[in-house]
Amino acid sequence: MEQNYLAPAETMQIHELLNFKTICMTSSKMMEGVVFDQELKTLFEKDVRQSITAINDLQVLLGKAPKLR
């Protein structure tokens, strides 16, 4: 059975995306408490939910990264 692994460059890019999405989610979550406009607050809540989904998907992809021995 053939195993599909990520190349080192792909692994690094996924780490960078994961860091970016984590920062975006944290910023949106913090802004939720500061914003008074309900429409804007709803957009931040939606961004947090989408970011959590993206973070979970990226973590699954990182499972394909080669393990160091």
What can you see in these coordinates?
The protein is an all-alpha fold and 69 residues long. It has one domain. 72% of the residues lie in helices and 0% in strands. 1% of the residues are buried. This is Spore coat protein. It comes from Clostridium manihotivorum.
SSE pattern, N- to C-terminal? HH
**Cα-to-Cα separation, first versus last residue:** 21 Å
Helical stretch count? 2
- What are the low-pLDDT stretches, counting only 5+ consecutive residues below 50? none
Tell me the strand percentage band.
under 5%
Can you tell me the number of structural domains?
Answer: 1
- The multimeric state of the shown protein is single chain
Largest sheet geometry: none
Record field, number of beta strands = 0
Mean pLDDT: 89
- Which percent bin holds the helix content? over 70%
Large-scale geometry? elongated
| Rounded radius of gyration (Å) | 16 Å
SSE class: mainly alpha
Organism: Clostridium manihotivorum
InterPro entries: Ferritin-like
Keywords: Capsid protein, Virion
Protein name: Spore coat protein
Features of the shown structure:
capsid protein; 69 residues; Spore coat protein; mainly alpha; Ferritin-like; 72% helix; 2 helices; virion
Quick rundown:
By secondary structure, this protein is mainly alpha-helical. 72% of the residues lie in helices and 0% in strands. The chain has one domain.
